[in-house]
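quick one, two chains, predict together pls
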Amino acid sequence: MRRSQFYIPTRRDVAKQESVNAYLLTKAGYISQIAAGAYALLPLAVRSLQKIEQIIREEMNAIGGSEVVFTALQPQETWEKSGRWNDPNFRQIVYRDEEAGMTFGATHEEPMAIVVKEKVQSYRELPVVLYQFQTKFRKELRAKSGLLRGREFRMKDLYSFHATEKDHQEFYEECAKAYTRVFDRLGLTSYRVKASGGVFSKEFSDEFQVICPTGEDEVMLDHATRTGFNKEVEDSMTAEQKKTLERVKAVEVGNIFHLGTKYPDAFDFKYLAADGSRNSIWMGSYGIGITRLLGVMAELHNDEFGLKFTGSMAPFEVVLIDLTHEHTVGDELYQTLTNGGLEVLYDDRDEPAGSKLVEADLIGVPVRVVFSQKTAQEGKVEVKDRLTGEVELVAKEELLAVLRSKLSR
Amino acid sequence: MRRSQFYIPTRRDVAKQESVNAYLLTKAGYISQIAAGAYALLPLAVRSLQKIEQIIREEMNAIGGSEVVFTALQPQETWEKSGRWNDPNFRQIVYRDEEAGMTFGATHEEPMAIVVKEKVQSYRELPVVLYQFQTKFRKELRAKSGLLRGREFRMKDLYSFHATEKDHQEFYEECAKAYTRVFDRLGLTSYRVKASGGVFSKEFSDEFQVICPTGEDEVMLDHATRTGFNKEVEDSMTAEQKKTLERVKAVEVGNIFHLGTKYPDAFDFKYLAADGSRNSIWMGSYGIGITRLLGVMAELHNDEFGLKFTGSMAPFEVVLIDLTHEHTVGDELYQTLTNGGLEVLYDDRDEPAGSKLVEADLIGVPVRVVFSQKTAQEGKVEVKDRLTGEVELVAKEELLAVLRSKLSR
């Protein structure tokens, strides 16, 4: 992408605020606040989120998921059937147009059960695994942590339907493994943490937590096994665990729930077994906060110059800064790197060198390539690793190979 | 994609309904109705829409657009400033949570002007061109035409900001050309039609209309120049035009508006010109209905067996049907075609031949490849063109080349 054609509204006039991620992402031109807890996603954020979503898409497809997009709008009748329309737990968090009799669904158990019921009748058609990337709405009273807790946010939610509790249990464990792979690929160390089912389920749920000093949750962690307990279920720990586990602040980036047969039963969705009996269907739901992940990355990966993102989720892998005025070398290198499959932001603008370098650090692209009249004459370019700060001079012909190795591509 | 791992809930129990597209797309497992005018998008629809969006993304990037995603939530205050909160034209179509003081924006002029104002101060920073793919909400009273008019739908909306009226006019024309390219790539013949500015503008607007017998609009068309007039502005036509233009039913798939300086002015968003003067900013908005496009394709491209989609927007380009039980040839061909860059749905299920063939026709994949024990022994496969109905036997080794040429790839 040519910088001259790409909108990056970095800002100098941002006041320090309660939320580190909102401050940094606003300054770096990723987001702009529309209302408390509601942020416009600007071009850099859109690219990052598309990369995060693609990683999740690959892992959800790998466990047999099919991608759908359900409507945010959900009619009053279906929420009355499942008992959620008048449930005060949901009433206080779900936007609704009373006149139209519509909720803006923060969660999709009802329509998923209804739609799958239209097709599935026999055990031969199970399991069904559907997931979506969707914009969710929640009336948050306290929305002060930037992308960590919003009134409007992107989520991946997946719903699975199974013939038996055992089938569901097996899929649940597969999904847990897929979640760990997602967070690993994003460079985040996640912990599988035992928690309450909250408003969704009377059973325990599993949360995926990432250590973060500004997180809302308190968790007790075992680093060796990458598991732990949410403080809210401390009664579940042994005396030994209470002594040895480390208590830290964390952010929940994913969660998975056993829903039992509640929602399918509410819509009389049952299946015909091989022996002819008509049985209840087991359901689970599985979420990952997409915009929240971007917030967590900003909270964790930054320094006094700005953001420090990893290649797997940075909007670009390489920023290429041309300090000459001819753009001959720049155009040539941009072509070479782009043809080589790298995601390159090519700063082709006639701006002062200082402001180009400052911007590259601020927006957090992992590798910076700079060349001036002088280095160009020597056939070299300067390569700086944003994460380690290391700088080296590299021959032009070797640049692609050096970058590929740096980015593990 | 292996069919055994991909959810295609085709249905036999769908009653004929007012809307052709809703009937066909429901039967073919693309969509499922959640409420009047609100449809869940199932896996086939998601793939088609992603392809449609990618074509639009490429054309919007080519005219200098940067992709963003603004929030659907928009606070009451900003709509009060622009005068739309109490405007009955908008009041009746926009969902709102009165208690929370929030609208669910069907359109984004206000937040776009506000966000761009945060950064842009000088003529050197103009133009700014931002676009988004977004879910929009509209309280439609009559929502009976399936994906042609929904209460929740996907749209591409683009907003441009310019220093002068002339700059805006030039961009407007560029965008009009890009729109024609988008519809051409989707295999739709579009007409640029003069229309009223509706609730957005007192000036004329341009609509992009596609001839469709079930369309809501009546337009007068000149086929040679692919232009015309919406019936609502008939007064604009000459007597000659009234005589020679053809009057037909059509669907509006895109529209572009001159907004003048209204919205930037409402938020005191001005720029500093080279001569030091502080001037008003010219704004335009430009929409394409994404889900509506899928609806139009279904209305126009079908026969008694189901949908007939073109490769550019069909969920898959090729459906590969294995009628043997070993899957050796199937696995091999699937690998070859996928490695060759084609989008293949590989029906690897042990289902009756009839139901596999019927499904392939119903879902509208443009090319069907079938092989049985018999053709496999002869080293051949059967290739059927869904659009023309032509069938030919092709040697296995030539399959990739034959398909590429059929799909113009």
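Chain A touches chain B through 53 residues (CB under 8 Å).
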